């Protein structure tokens, strides 16, 4: 918020200065009243150079202390209000200040401000100027449900995980809420689901959020009170209870808290638990959203669920038709997985979607695998005829081209087929898939025909070819061209390029053996 600006803070020396100058601590009781424009007076002006009675030139960031304020200063994990101060300067001109940050130091509320409009100068602002304080209540309305829901979350955690779960910290902004608690393990998906459901239940019930100020001793006896261990609370203390008046036994939550809250849980609209993770040994963190952010997360979650269900239906349709054409579906599942990973949705839903996409991918893999092996068997059958003919002719070495891709088990099946039909054949096997061509050489006369040299010679015209092996067996491969999976024209073009490469390999391999005089 203060990016690029001097940070103004009041230390003990500065608050002592204010006391000596008979400036009273700020009356901030108006911070719990909503939609007010508070008329008050500038009591002190603070710059990076110290206190000034009147602002001179070249001041861009000014700290304003007023007799009263309606602004909520950052505390209890809740970020401060922002808004504007409308000040009438000594010369009668009106200066609008943008309140960037509000902090309290020893009872003095310091509003760190800059001119709202670039054209306006802060020069001439002076102590005792009349000022109207205008909080940005729209922003506070986004912050308040996040704060109230940290209380409800605290309650829900205890309900789901047991009384031993203790709050370790929280942070509330207009965008999200963060809640840290002690636990020596991660939460199960079922626990996260119960927590999220319980909070949404409390929201939909429209429970009243009560706030009252009670003597500390009396307040500490409230049954079900959640207080942070080791925290020093003021006396009297403000008590926030959800569901019923604290003294009647709140339905959902009772906490000591000075924050600004909603009046009824339904104002939060919805709660989505975005993330649960470890931040330190034994400390977990939950991040959640409420209001429109929660509604959009739910909407996005619904869309992703529909997409996942659609892909599931497509798979079933392919299975029903006994089709093995799953490449397109595979690409869609991969893309949806990426979308799910990047999406701001309920972490519970994320786990569920990932599981279902993973099982989809497994099914697709099984179909592909089945299809590949069928293809390999078909290729092996074709190859068998060719091998029988080679054996009949008494050929001792040959280049064999198959179309089974480059998966090891496919290549192995073909090699086994060759060795069983033509055990006395030295051969160079070439197999291609969309972009990769694999070569495997087997030599029965390694003194004359070195398998590794045969592979090198076969792949010599392909840049980036790799290979290795010995004189009796060797293998190599090369990437040929590239193809965009969903582009038909690109695929056709790639097919031509690949066919050309395979033909080249075949020629180079045959040339190599004829040069050896074989
Ligand atoms: Zn609170």
UniProtKB/TrEMBL annotation:
One matching Pfam family is: DHHA1
Record-annotated Alanyl-transfer RNA synthetases family profile domain positions? 1-300
GO CC terms for this protein? chloroplast; mitochondrion
Q: Tell me one GO molecular function of this protein.
A: alanine-tRNA ligase activity
- Assigned keywords, A-Z: Aminoacyl-tRNA synthetase, ATP-binding, Ligase, Nucleotide-binding, Protein biosynthesis, RNA-binding, tRNA-binding
UniProt family annotation? Belongs to the class-II aminoacyl-tRNA synthetase family. Alax-L subfamily.
Q: What is this protein called?
A: alanine--tRNA ligase
